[in-house]
Specification:
Layout: H1 2-12, H2 22-45, H3 51-58, H4 61-73, H5 79-96, H6 121-146, H7 152-173, H8 189-213, H9 218-225, H10 228-238, H11 246-263, H12 265-299
């Protein structure tokens, strides 16, 4: 669907599939490949772990974005951004609960076992996929920001082409896949409906994301995306009836705090910058006022 829609737009606008500049060609194809990997691994991760846990890891990509923006785009890396990145990483650790930090005890009567959720081996497969999506998502944000002058339909079209190639390759390797097989007609209508809804929602989300990266800072875009965590935990609790464990909630809260720090980074920096200035101004005003009173007392 995405290839058809954006190829039509590119043809209608009389644009090229690739820009003329070789450097922009490289960045355009690279962002498409990295974006496809990020999107596919994001979808695959939720098959092995709860959706909120996967989202917490995936949306820790502001940490990757901050580092890559400093290395590739030349953005300043200050203490406030490092603090926000630390909050995000701590939140991811609390959500994932790795065994070497959160040992599972067979004694169910232990006072702290109610805080820990049980994990299986497949859960950590989901962690690996979500971590891949996190890293590639941060890299994709920076690469799209480097594609200045390249239209949004061209960028999205190459993401769709890369995703199609990867999906065809994996469907041939995976046993039981019915998309490119004679069992194609056996897929029920409800599965087709879910696939179409996923395609349309993914198309809209990816379009908005790509266009936003061309307008504002990649750090701010990646931070604002994590607001989906609030919705994910609400859906899990209300619709599915699954209450997240305490550590996951606390980790999600840390991630949300890190997002807020990144979102209001400039205002917080300005506030700390103006505090000493205002203090000095107040001091000089006080001294001047006292000096004026003393002069009036002595000389009338």
């Amino acid at each position: 669907i995405q290839i058809f829609v954006y190829s039509t737009i590119i043809f209608w606008n009389d644009e090229n599939l690739l820009p003329q500049n070789n450097k922009k060609k490289f960045f355009t194809i690279s962002q498409g490949l990295i974006g496809a990997i990020s999107f596919i691994t994001s979808l695959a991760s939720v098959s092995f772990m709860p959706v909120p846990d996967a989202l917490c890891i995936i949306f820790a990509c502001p940490v990757v974005t901050i580092l890559l923006s400093a290395a590739i785009l030349g953005d300043k890396l200050n203490s406030l951004k490092c603090f926000a990145g630390t909050l995000l990483l701590l939140g991811v650790v609390l959500v994932c609960q790795p065994p070497f930090l959160f040992p599972q005890t067979p004694n169910s009567q232990a006072p702290y076992t109610f805080l820990l959720a049980s994990r299986t081996g497949l859960y950590y497969v989901g962690v690996a996929l979500a971590s891949t999506a996190c890293c590639t998502g941060g890299l994709m944000d920076v690469l799209i920001a480097k594609c200045q002058g390249v239209s949004t339909p061209v960028l999205l079209n190459w993401s769709a082409i890369s995703g199609l190639v990867i999906s065809i390759g994996f469907s041939q390797l995976q046993t039981g896949s019915r998309i490119l097989s004679p069992d194609f007609v056996k897929i029920c209508w409800s599965d087709w409906l879910i696939l179409v809804i996923l395609a349309v929602s993914g198309l809209l989300a990816f379009t908005c994301l790509t266009h936003a990266l061309k307008l504002i800072s990649p750090n701010l875009v990646s931070a604002l995306r994590t607001l989906e965590l609030v919705l994910a935990y609400s859906v899990q609790a209300i619709v599915l009836g699954e209450d997240p464990d305490i550590w996951s909630c606390f980790g999600g809260g840390l991630i949300f705090m890190g997002v807020l720090v990144l979102t209001f980074h400039d205002k917080i920096s300005d506030w700390f910058l103006w505090r000493p200035v205002l203090r000095d101004v107040h001091y000089y005003q006080t001294v001047s006022y006292r000096g004026f009173d003393e002069y009036s007392r002595l000389y009338g």
